[in-house]
Amino acid sequence: GAVVSQHPSWVICKSGTSVKIECRSLDFQATTMFWYRQFPKQSLMLMATSNEGSKATYEQGVEKDKFLINHASLTLSTLTVTSAHPEDSSFYICSAVGYRFPNSPLHFGNGTRLTVT
Amino acid sequence: AQTVTQSQPEMSVQEAETVTLSCTYDTSESDYYLFWYKQPPSRQMILVIRQEAYKQQNATENRFSVNFQKAAKSFSLKISDSQLGDAAMYFCAYRMGMRFGAGTRLTVKP
What we know:
The complex is a heterodimer. By secondary structure, chain A is mostly beta strands. Chain A is built from no helices and 11 strands. Chain B is mainly beta. Chain B contains no helices and 12 strands. In chain B, the strands form 3 sheets. In chain B, strands 2, 5, 6, 10, 11 and 12 form a 6-stranded mixed sheet that branches. A 4-stranded antiparallel sheet of chain B has the order 3-9-8-7, with no helix packed on it. Chain B has a two-stranded antiparallel ribbon with strand order 1-4. In chain B, β10 and β11 form a beta hairpin.
């Protein structure tokens, strides 16, 4: 089946630094990728939708300048948490769909646990 | 905006029994997809079943089936012959915009 690789699986960083999370589709071309945030024991909250070669569409309330999303190729999207603060600590998950979206099922990465100290 | 509601924060079922998880949604679109995902403690999201709104027939995948009521905007998941490995968080999701419900934590008792 289709595989989405998300890296790193966990990261600890100091307050004020930036962290980049990568999401790669390994065996298919991902025309659209989604980024989510999940707090403990809560649901996935959609942060943004990114289409290859265009600017990401952010959900209401998500700071574009803090959560930079780049989808430069059909197999890679990155989420950069800039000037991270402890309140940015969370579990971040990406998902990707192929060219037949919305007919294609979503393929999820394994998530990244970010801890900001 | 689309919203997805799961009104059961927790559910419990005896092994080998049947359990139904509820989901309602709100949308003005006529063509869309609905999904149930499972998230075990590993936090990996696993697709359980999906339903295309224009199909009247309820989707079935082995022990998992849905009761899709388009007019009522209801999309419940039935798990038959529950197994210990079914214990997880279950999320209902609306495709267009990728909205997820709050989730239902399912416990399976041996």
